[in-house]
Amino acid sequence: MKSEVFEHHFTVPRSAIDDMEHVNNVVYLQWVQDIAKKHWESKTNKTIQNTYVWVVLNHFIEYHRPAFENEKITIQTWIDNYRGVKSERHTKIINTTSQKVLVSAKTSWCLLYKETLRPARITDEISTLFL
Fold this sequence. Notes:
Blueprint: E1 6-11, H1 25-43, H2 46-51, E2 52-63, E3 72-83, E4 86-95, E5 101-113, H3 124-127
Antiparallel strand pairs: 1-3, 2-5, 3-4, 4-5
């Protein structure tokens, strides 16, 4: 199952810039997590959001090119597959003007029941929201 691509656009803020005058690697990782949350919230209702929560099992991230203050950025994310309680999400961070990929990431997520923090099987009700 590969879900539709979800996109978010923004301009690199000064707060993302490190001592080397480009976006800090930790900021890219935060953006990877932020876009996953935005995607989840855009597809689910409050009942689902109040029942489940996602936690990261691992990140694999590749830094291809730097980004700089005031550059236009497009972040794309999609779910490549899921099985049981786990989901694999891909993310690309792209310079909107040049269309060059700045960062690519693959994250393994685990779905939990929000109240107990115990693993929850990904149901058809949830998976079909992302097709």
